[in-house]
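FW: tagging you since you asked about this chain on Friday. Here's the raw sequence from the shared folder, copied in full. Didn't touch anything.
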Amino acid sequence: MDTQQVSAPSRAPSRLRGRVTGSGVVHVKAHHTSRFTVVGNHLAQHGELSLVAIGLAVHIQSLPDGAKVGIKALADRFPESETRIAAALRELEAHRYLERTRVRLPGGRLVTRTVSYDRPGVTAPATPPPPPAPEPESQPEPEPVPQQVPERPRPPLPRPQGPDVERHRVATELLAGLRREDARLLLGERDVRRLAPAVAAWLERDAHPDAVRHALTADLPDRLRQPAGLLAHRLTALLPPPLPTAAPKSTRDPFQTCDTCDRAFRAPEPGRCRDCRPGLPEAA
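HL: got it, structure written out here
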């Protein structure tokens, strides 16, 4: 009986177009624009590292800073045992692709600090010092607020003690006629009515109208912008005091000299004293 020959399965047809020569690898390259890691051939084609060490180094280089690369974390990620992973890490340390040091934290806890080198022999960057705390922005000192001196209230215009129609008429005519002395002293009716009582107060204190006119028109400033204000100031500041009251006349008779005995006596008219007048009782 003939023995049935079992033939080997044929190879799968190649998806590469064109003629293929030899049995070496053919690369189908793609241009990466995101999520890729550049690995040097010195690592990928290292002649002394094991495949586990090379693959582990590529994986570590693809991780971001701060990723966990301890033995337990790597054993949870890959099917290799902790023993094989520990041996691969020692290989990478021996060929200076990794550097692991023990660091004590401020709280006293010891942790492993791992530095990965893309190319052996590159100096590890020094641990950057913590950035200095930003200095507080200096606030400019507030500018001192100028203290406003309160304006002194203007003293009121003087007013007469009692109404006097004739005196008020003279005061009004005096103010209205000041423009004859100086054209700049032209006043409106409102200002004349406001200032007339003050002029009447001067007249009430026996100031002559000519004296009042001179006090208001003498030594005027070169630039006179507010004539009514200047007149109000002068009428207030230069107000004369009232005349002193005349001493009352004595009700007693003046002294007289007796025509007979030259004795002094009080009598409304010259003559003789009581002792020398006939018909009068003698003084005790």
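FW: The chain is about 30% helix and 5% strand.
HL: agreed, and Strands lie at 98-104, 110-116, 255-257, 264-266.
FW: great, closing this out.
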